[in-house]
Amino acid sequence: MADLIAEGTDTKNRWRRTLPEDQPLVLGRTQAAWAVPWDDRISRRHVELRWRHGTLKVQRLATARNPVFVRGQELDEFELQAGECFVIGQTTFTVVNDEVNVSLEVPQPIEEQTFTSQHLEHIRFRNAEQRLEALARMPEVISGAGSDSELFVRLANLLLAGIRRAEAVAIVAIDHREDQSSPIRILHWDRRLAIGGAFEPSQRLILEALRRQHSVLHVWGGSTAAAGGPTMTWNESYDWAFCTPIVSEETSAWAIYVTGRFSSELLSTPPATPSDPSDLREELKFTELVAVFVASLRQVRALQQRQASLSPFFAPQVLEAFAYEDPEVVFRPRETEVTVLFCDLRGFSAESERHAHRLLELLERVSDALGVMTHDILQNDGVVGDFHGDAAMGFWGWPLPQPDKVERACRAALGVRAVLAAAAQQPSHALSNFRMGIGIATGTAVAGKIGTIDQVKVTVFGPVVNLASRLEGMTKILRTPILMDSATAQIARQQLSPDEGRFRRLAVVRPFGLDTPVEVTELLPPESDYPLLTNEHLALYEQALDAFKEGRWSEANELLHGVPAGDRAKDFLTVFIAQHDRMPPANWDGVVPLDRKS
Questions:
Q1: Is the model's pLDDT at 348 over the cut of 60?
Q2: Would you tell me which CATH number, out of the four given (1.10.340.30, 1.10.10.10, 2.40.160.10, 2.60.200.20), belongs to the domain 3-96?
Q3: What values do phi and psi take at 357, rounded to 5?
Q4: What whole-number distance in Å separates Cα of residue 300 and Cα of residue 309?
Q5: What predicted TM-score, i.e. pTM, was given to this entire model?
Q6: pLDDT at 514 (0 to 100)
Q7: Mean pLDDT of the chain
Q8: Alpha helices in 325-404 (DSSP H)
Q9: pLDDT tens, 5-22?
Q10: Domain ranges for the chain
């Protein structure tokens, strides 16, 4: 596998990236992973690259301002082999095809030292300004990397720039795959010289550092020994190497491997003073700080990603609970009092038939409608518990107690109704042909992470969920957008002002397949937003309902005719009365049996 190395005039301006086989790439000043941002003589899109069968084909693009030089000649199209290079502006690009393998053949070191972070705290940097400048780039290195592979490239560049005596660096990890000959995997590596001798990191050193979870240094030799005479050197390029683990939950198996040569001294004994040029403790301390930065920022990134993955389902208030507690504890199923809201999208089947040849367009519209539902659930600090086709379920009261959970659910329901009602007035609106039905119920349920080994989701379970679903289905029968049970209605009347929402007892029904009657109440917008039904109309209807329940059907029918004809909900009682010839059946108990679920 071949790499391309880019090197600018400054040591920090460089990178090494793997060339994929037979894949076109564009190199330029702003081309993502193949960007060369430090050289203003390189255009945004300068050359196209393609590595194929051991040859790199390079073609200058029409958008390129400046020429490309190969072996001193200006060329617009050429091919390179491993070891050859081309130049654009002040940057040299070298093709290399050397491999790195973790080796067990590395000789035993003449010295091994282990350094804890507490020990390295007391080491002072001689060139502190340079070190701090490199460390100051760490947030940019982490945040600017869109993937782990890009992070490794940036990290290797920073280490080579910050450790002057380093000849090569590698980011390594434990490889748990059974088909691997070595337990160590090279995630990325780079060296100061584009072309050099063999680089074979010591497996013994890496495993020892990861086992101890501290930095470990191995010394094989130097140019001369303090006592006189030559000493063994591991190979022509490297006298020493150290490995520093990156310790965190997100990087538990990662480590940084650094190797290089001594200029003239040998670290065969501890240096007399911290200023001894043979002392590698400064390099170790710098690498340790880099490892701490990487571990910490990776942990932050993991938390951010976790928050982002949860944000479609949890309101900010709920997410805040995760910041202070173990998610496993927060998610653990427990019994609690909740308010559940089921919201179903109506008109989907008819729209499916009309748009059978444009299903993707229909999917976008349905997604927009579901987005309205989830937005209002989250906006009112609820949890999006589940999706059922074109329906959504939300609930309140978990993971944090919410004394105003009923009020929040009502506001969410009214918010969804308002958006779809406004869309219905605009024929060109994407949601104009959709309606919705909402059921709200309050009661005890089990909430948390529920499911099987194969599939787990955060949701709520219990009879109150079934009741909310039944109420949503009843909205089709009673022809009203929002229904709730009596327990919810009783609390809602206390928590919601008339300027926010109004209530109307519609009927006492026996749901299909159930024995227990349910009094259903409609939630409506305030009179100013829905003038079709005034407060007097609602009071008139409830008088009619009381007469209906008590068997005074003629009186009930007369009162119902005082409610505007545009109110479709009153048809439920008027039709039932007409079907029974305005006479209550024998043994009338005020309950209307339903012959279907919806």
A1: no
A2: 2.60.200.20
A3: -95, 0
A4: 14
A5: 0.56
A6: 82
A7: 83
A8: 327-331, 348-354, 359-379
A9: 999 988 788 899 999 999
A10: 3-96, 111-301, 316-496, 504-512+528-598
Q: What superfamily in CATH does domain 316-496 come from?
A: Nucleotide cyclase, GGDEF domain (3.30.70.1230)
Angle at 27 between CA 16 and CA 72, to 5 degrees: 85
Residue 51 predicted with pLDDT over 90? yes
* Residue 365 CB partners (closer than 8 Å, separation 6+): 351, 430, 431, 434
Are 77 and 60 in contact by the 8 Å Cβ rule? The answer is yes
Q: Is 308 exposed, middle or buried (0-12, 13-18, 19+ CB in 10 A)?
A: exposed
**DSSP secondary structure letters along 293-333:** HHHHHHHHHHHHHHHHHHTTTB-HHHHHHHHHS-HHHHHS-
C-alpha dist (Å) from residue 226 to 14, 222, 266, 272? 37, 10, 7, 13
Residue-wise over 164-198: b if at least 16 C-beta within 10 A, else e? ebbbbbbbbbebeeeeeeebbebbbbbbbebeeee
CA dihedral (370, 375, 378, 380) positive or negative: negative
As a whole number of angstroms, the distance between CA 280 and CA 62 comes to 49
Lookup result for tokens 């074109």? 390
**How many helices and strands in the chain, by DSSP H and E?**
16, 25
| Distance from C-alpha of 208 to C-alpha of 210, rounded to nearest angstrom | 6
Q: In this structure, how many other beta carbons lie within 10 angstroms of the beta carbon of residue 63?
A: 11
Q: Is 400 exposed, middle or buried (0-12, 13-18, 19+ CB in 10 A)?
A: middle
Alpha-carbon distance values, 129 to 12, 52, 251 (Å)? 15, 44, 28
**Category of 539 on φ-ψ map: left (φ > 0), alpha (ψ -120 to 50) or beta:** alpha
The pLDDT assigned to 268 comes to: 39
CATH superfamily, with its number, for domain 111-301: GAF domain (3.30.450.40)
112 vs 356: CA distance, rounded Å: 72
Sequence-ordered list of residues with C-beta below 8 angstroms from that of 97, at least 6 positions apart, any chain: 1, 2, 3, 54, 82, 83
- CA 416 from chain centre, in angstroms, equals 26
Let me know if 589 is exposed, middle or buried by CB neighbors in 10 A (0-12, 13-18, 19+): exposed
Whether the CB-CB separation of 319 and 307 falls below 8 Å is answered with: yes
Rounded Cα–Cα distance for residues 34 and 27 (Å): 5
Q: Are residues 591 and 508 in contact, defined by beta-carbon separation less than 8 angstroms?
A: yes
pLDDT band at 441 (very low <50, low <70, confident <90, very high): very high
**Spatial CB neighbours of 133, under 8 Å, sequence gap ≥ 6:** none
411's tokens = 């506001």
- Peptide bond between residue 403 and the one before it cis (omega within 30 degrees of 0): no
Side chain identity at 251, as an amino acid letter?
T
Q: What is the pLDDT confidence band of residue 395, given thresholds at 50, 70 and 90? A: very high
Instruction: Characterize the bridge pairing of strands 435-451 and 482-485.
Output: parallel
Work out whether strand 592-593 and strand 502-510 pair parallel, antiparallel, or are unpaired.
parallel
